[in-house]
Amino acid sequence: MWTILTRPGQSSPHELISFGVAIGKSKSPSTTKIGNANGPRITTEEEVNKQILQHEKSGAGILCQVKTRHGAQASVLTLTKDVVGVVAVLGKVEDDNLSRLFSEYLGVETMLAIVCKTYEGVKALEMYDMEGCINKSVGLHGLGATIGKPLDGRFLVICLESLRPYAGKYVVDDSQRKLDILHPRLPNGECPAGFIGFAVNMINIDNSNLFCVTPSGYGLRETLFYNLFSRLQVYKTRAEMIQALPCISDGALSLDGGMVKSCGVFSLGNREDINVRFPRPERSVGLDAHIEIERQMEDVQSKKEKLLEELKEEKKMLEMAKYNFNKKKSDFLKFLTLSSSSSYAAQVQTAPYAPR
After folding, report:
1. Which pLDDT value is given to residue 340?
2. What is the pTM of this model?
3. What is the predicted pLDDT for the residue at 330?
4. Which residues form a coiled coil (predicted)?
5. Phi-psi region of 117 (alpha: psi -120 to 50; beta: other; left: phi over 0)
6. Dihedral sign from CA coordinates of 15, 93, 85, 271
7. Collapsing DSSP states into helix, strand and coil, what is residue 23?
8. How far apart, in whole angstroms, are the C-alpha atoms of residue 59 and residue 125?
């Protein structure tokens, strides 16, 4: 049986099929948490793989075990050659707190989703007999049985070619090909206080997955992560996030744990520590200093743009003042010309005046 899953806010059949496919039997929510909630922070891809391996009878766990045992050979298997990877290891996040927030927002099931390039790859993972029952001897079920880890319960598979990709522009000269999404605006036209950015642009993606991952030439940011996060906004505090509700359409997070799942849907209560998180990107020596310099340059550029905007407004006001002055002067001279004080008018006309 096939169960179509949706993200909050989707309703049409076309949108329903574009998100992902859940395969297999239903699973109790109590078994979806991986690892110890009080365990160490996950910061490297190796640690993320260890957490995935703890869920050894999941689809992601079985794939991870095959990769660990067989390395490069796993990518040439008919079963796995179309698989890009597991969501949790396809993106990296600079900040541990943001990584926790993103994984909590998506949930363990989505973090462990297997990502395929095409629908042919989805079909290769699970096959059925004439009666429509799962054939446990082939596909990922058969692979799990051969390594002594039979697949247990449902697992998500996301098909990239079936997703509706981001259709807008990209940030110019950005090595990560971030999406050029307009910042939210309050009814008064101002950007809400505390707005940091969009979650989809806070994911770092390996260069190999930035371009042409799908047959249509799209990368992971505009397909996978855009469909997972859409225009999810990130704010500094919960209070600032609440103040920005009028311009939040696809959900929001705050660094202190606030969460709006979608327009009008709030996630309340204590934060859930999900230990399947995005790893932090590896850094070379001196990269931190380089990032800090880039940040300072961005601040200077932002201040420059603000000053130029203010200068532009001041120039408009000056031009308007000159126009009004010259108009009044012209009216005054006409009045003097028509009056009996023609000699006085001549004196005024010859008086020095600053050029326009």
Report:
1. 57
2. 0.67
3. 85
4. 290-328
5. alpha
6. negative
7. strand
8. 9
Task: Please choose, from the candidates 199, 127, 206, 123, the residue with its C-alpha nearest in 3D space to the C-alpha of residue 161.
Answer: 123
In this prediction, residue 273 carries a pLDDT of 78
Query: At residue 119, what is the residue type?
Result: Y
Q: Helix H segments across the chain?
A: 13-19, 45-54, 59-70, 87-90, 96-106, 108-111, 119-125, 139-146, 226-229, 238-243, 287-338, 342-350
Tokens read off for 191:
């950007």
Burial code (b: 16+ CB inside 10 Å, e: under 16) for 192-214 equals: bebbeebbbbbbbbeeebeeebb
pLDDT of residue 293: 72
- Dist CA 270 CA 294 (whole Å): 36
DSSP string covering 259-314 = EEEETTEE--SSPP--S--PPPPP--TTHHHHHHHHHHHHHHHHHHHHHHHHHHHH
Q: What pLDDT sits at residue 73?
A: 56
What is the separation, in whole angstroms, between the first and last Cα of the chain? 79
Measured CA to CA in angstroms, residue 243 lies from 74, 123, 235, 238, 257 at distances of 49, 46, 10, 9, 15
Ramachandran bin of 251, using left for φ above 0, alpha for ψ from -120 to 50, beta for the remaining angles: left
Ranges of the chain with pLDDT below 50:
1-21, 25-40, 42, 284-287
Question: Is residue 213 within 8 Å of residue 262, measured between CB atoms?
Answer: no
Beta-carbon contacts of 352 under 8 Å, excluding residues fewer than 6 positions away, are none
